[in-house]
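One example copied in:
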Amino acid sequence: MEEQTIKKENLSTHKSQNWLLVTSFLQVVLLVYIAMQIGGIGGTIQGAAVAGAPTVERGVADPEPQPVANVDMKQLVDDDPSLGEKDAPITIVEFSDYECPFCARFYSQTLPQIKSNYIETGKVKLIYRDFPLSFHQQAEPAAIAANCAGQQGKYFEYHDKIFDDGGAAGKSSADYKKWAQELKLNVAQWEKCLSDPAQKQEIQKDFLDGQRAGVQGTPGFFVNGKVVSGAQPFSVFQQIIEQELR
């Protein structure tokens, strides 16, 4: 009887130890996932907005920009929103995701300098295209909301609202409507646009065009045919732009 009791106690202890190991492992996995979602790791989160498509978020640790062979910039230019002069000598095509923390970093740290130095001086035109990653649940809804604001001539005003509020992560339809009201859009018209299948098709086209051009993460840029991957500092863009202006 005493031997059976000892065996039962040993079995119980063994099960408890196994459970503690499993619990500890799950806690580590959860912490790593949270860290990646916050944006502490660049270029490591795998996902795909289209089945089988490798996509990542790209931070500043990614490789320096290299020329992209056989990329026709005309194929990257759609009827998407743009900033700058139509005939500017330099065209930057940005593929971005409203929930991507590195896209928000580019918006807050690099874009203002590109605007003041090159866009507002007529040297650069920036074209914004959507590249929503599949693991970002609000990336596509935010893109549709912005595109519908664009139907009323306020695309970049809405674009700025999203990023100024920390991006689309954790946002809801109530937030999107609030921004539409703040921009004094015709809200009824804007809401009707949200349910238009053409809006989703336009975003899908952006994504597929980006894939064909070799985009594998966000943010991704083409500067007159040269690729810049990730939220690079202004100096990286400046170097390429100045070379193209010579």
About this structure: The longest strand covers residues 90-96. The two ends are 92 Å apart (CA to CA).
